[in-house]
Every structure is written in structure tokens, then in C-alpha cells.
Amino acid sequence: MSYKKDLSHYQAIPWPSLGPLTIDTGVLSVGDRDRLLAAMAECCSRHGYGETTIVAVTERAGLGRASFDSHFESKEDCAVAALNKIVSETLAAVSTAPTADGEGERRVLQIRAILELMSAQPSFAHLVYIEARQGGTKRMRDTYQSAAHVLALMMERLGGNGEQPPARAARAALGGAEAVMRRELALGNTGAVPVLLPDFVYAALVPFVGQREALRQSRLARQLLAEEG
Amino acid sequence: MEKAQREQLFWALMAELAEKGYRDASVEGPMAAAGVSTAEFEAEFKDKDACLFAAYDHMTELALNTATSDCESGREWPERLRDGLKKLLEAIAAEPELARAMTRSFPGIRPATYECYVELLARFLPYMEEGRKYSGVDEELPGEVELLAVGAAEAIIFSEVDAGRAERLPQMMPEILFSVLVPFMGPDRAADEMRSASAAL
After folding, report:
1. Which end of chain B is more exposed for a tag (fewer CB within 10 A), N or C?
2. Which residues of B touch A178 (CB under 8 A)?
3. How many other C-beta atoms are found inside a 10 Å radius of the C-beta of residue A106?
4. Any residues with CB less than 8 A from the CB of B117 and at least 6 apart, and which?
5. How far is CA A125 from CA A119, A142, A175, B10, in A?
6. Interface pTM (ipTM) of the complex?
7. Sequence spans of domains, chain B
């Protein structure tokens, strides 16, 4: 079995870097919206949601208040839209991950897709993993919780016909991996996140497939990273 | 400021934070509750933020001491872990508002306060390292296995505290214990320990 065979089909979802705005507002309104979402994520990651202002977001996006008001009703509305964007992209990355020989192997590629996405978009990762959970509003928490619930359900499907782990085992396993992710985000080490693939694979699998199989998959994940240099 | 006054100030300030949120929390009420004058406060703390950080650090130390006070005894690691977890969950259930301040109100203020939360979790990691010995596969375990275990417990605790159900946590101890042990021991052995913990309850 090799993980490499289908990787040519996989591409991390690109995200434009924020630079000075040169486009004419009103003509490319979708682009304006994306700039505002990116600016919201960036401001939150630097200052926290509570200390982020609409003025700071529009200044970072290089847009005026009128543009913000044409897209969003409030700061919270913009933050929730930014969350929905990264959550949608995460679930898309999981569902479009390359096919593999087995279910366990497919999970490795799905986890890899998430890690690469978060590494490529650290501000959005900060928004979803930290601000939505502990710094934001109830709407933001609900968005985060819904996404975490979906991922936990996907992990539970890994279980076989043997003894089932406790009800919250998947959420707890996800929490363990998230704790590692949050530490890296808090320390600004997002570039190293993809290297954590073997650890995340192990965490996601061990309650459901047993330690031996989880270690095997973790080793294969390590091998995959080594082969790619 | 006397030691007891400082401790009372910290407790009152964390309660204020949990109740009012960061913007509306002030030090005047906690100072009055602790019998601390403005001069005494200013002699130790530059401002509200300095006192908040000191209070959080103090509470982190208390949480760590609660969970690990018996860790040096001669009992086996899973048993000590179980007892420490039990004490921590009982303490959280007894002070749900403090727990909310520790897990949400303070960490959510800004990135610098979130770093303190990361540090809080990191303080528990040394007590997990012994789990490698019990795994039987130490060399193969992921480098982050200690944080995977601590983060698993934190996920359940945070969820219950945030939902206003902290009082349920002591009853959930066996399930949380499973999630802490499973990265080290695998599901079968972790389930055995969970059943033993349930029977002990």
C-alpha cells in the first residue's frame, strides 16, 4: 500500500495573501467579501475577537465601512461568515481527499488535508480553533461545535464490531489533537502543523481501531512525510 | 497585602470576570471584598490586567496542586491518575464559575491570555510522562502523546463547564479517565481501568 499513488490529484485550497487593495469596490464585490473575511480572521488572530473592531477589519482589508455594511450586518456576522468559510473548506478538504486502499489509509489523507489547510490559513485556523471556542460569541461557539460534532461522528465510524468506546471518546480524541493544534497556533508555529500528521493520525484512530493498528497507521503517516521530504 | 487578602482578591476578581466579562469587570469590588486599599493594590499590581494575570497564575497552581498532590506516593500511575482526576473534577464541580473564568473568560480576552491557558495545560504534561512506561510501546508512541491525553480530558471538561453542567463531571470521571489513558494503553486496557473506576464510584 502506498499513500502516494493518488496525491497528484490533491491540492491544498489556496488563499490569497492580503496586500494593498487596488481593485475598484463594487465591481468585484465577491472579492471584497473575501478580503473582509480574511481581514477579520487576521485581526482576531492578532488581537482576539473581543478587541477586534470593524474599523480595524476594514482598514486591514483596505475597504470602506460602506463595503463592510453591504456584506455584513455586524462584526459578529462577519466573524461567523469567516468561520463558515473555513469550516466549509475543511469539510470539503476531508470529503475530496484522495482515495486510498483502506478506510484507515483514507483517514490519514483526510487528516493530512485538514492539517495542510490549517497550515496554509493560520489566521482562519486561529479563528476556528481558539476564538470561536473560547473568545467569541454564542453564534461562533455554535458554529465551532457543529463542525467538531461532524468530525467526531466521522471518527466514530472507524469503530469495528468489537467493544465500543465511551460515548465521548471521539470528541475527546479530537480534543487531544485540537490541543496540539491550539498550542502550535498560540506559539505561531503553524508551518510545522503538517509534520504533526503521525500524532494526529494516532489520536484519531487509537480509541476505535486499537493501539497496534493506530501505531501502524501512524508509522505509515511518518513514512509518507519522509518520502515527501 | 496579607497572603490571605491576596488570595481573597484573586478569587473575587475571577468571580467578577466570570460574571461580568473582561470589559465590565473592575477591581474595585474585589478589592472591597478582600479589604485591600488602593495603595496596597497599586503597590503590587500595575493595573487590572496585572492582577488578572497574577490571579490566573495562582488558580493554575491551585488546580495543579489539587490534581497532583498524591502523585509522589508509591501507588501505580493509573491509580494516582484516577485519584488526581477525581479530585480535580470535584473541585471544578464545586466552583463552576471559577472554572468558567479559567477556561473561557480569561483565555478569551486576547492572544496573550490564551497563551496562559496553553501554559495551564502544559503544566499537567510532566504527570503524563509516566504513562509511556505503562504503554509497553514507549518508543513507538507519538511525541505529543502527553498533550493528546491532557487535551482529551480538557475537551470533555471544557464542554461540560461551558454548558453549565460542571456538577456532572465527578460522575463522568471513569469516561474521562478512559480518554486520558487510551493514547498510552490502547482501548482494551483503558476500558479495564474505566470499569475499575466505575466500580470504585
Report:
1. C
2. 151, 155
3. 17
4. A134, B103, B106, B107
5. 8, 16, 15, 32
6. 0.94
7. 3-200
Closest by Cβ to A169, choosing from B103, B140, B178? B178
CA angle A90, B111, A18 (to 5 degrees): 55
State residue A20 phi and psi, 5-degree precision.
-60, 140
Q: Is B109 on the interface with A (CB under 8 A)?
A: yes
Residue identified by cell 471544557 is: B158
Amino acid identity for residue B167 in this structure: E
Query: What is the distance between the alpha carbons of residues A62 and A44, in angstroms, rounded to a whole number?
Result: 16
Q: Give the C-alpha separation, B54 to A218, whole Å.
A: 40
Are A35 and A20 in contact by the 8 Å Cβ rule? The answer is no
In chain A, where the domains are located:
3-227
**Residue A11, Cα to own-chain centre: how many angstroms?**
15
Residue B183: closest CA among B141, B130, B140 = B141
Comparing CA positions, the residue from A49, A58, A48 lying closest to residue A18 is: A58
Cell numbers 480576552 correspond to B109
Rounded to whole angstroms, how far apart are CA atoms B23 and A81? 25
Nearest Cα residue to A85 out of A24, A149, A15, A171: A15
Instruction: Identify the band that residue A98 occupies on the pLDDT scale cut at 50, 70 and 90.
Output: confident
Q: Dihedral of CA B25/B30/B36/B37: which sign?
A: positive
Topology of domain B3-200, per CATH?
Tetracycline Repressor; domain 2 (1.10.357)
Integer distance in angstroms from the first to the last C-alpha of chain A?
Answer: 19
CA distance A138 to A76: 10
Q: Which residues of A touch B135 (CB under 8 A)?
A: 211
Residue A4 has pLDDT above 80, yes or no: no
Is CATH 1.10.357.10 correct for A3-227? Answer: yes
Express each pLDDT in B101-121 by its tens digit.
999 999 999 999 999 999 999
Mutate to test the interface with A, among B110, B176, B188 (most CBs of A within 10 A): B110
The candidate with the shortest Cα–Cα distance to A101, out of A220, A199, A16, is A220
Distance separating alpha carbons of residues A128 and A82, to the nearest angstrom: 9
Segments in B28-110 forming alpha helices (H): 28-34, 38-44, 48-68, 77-94, 96-100
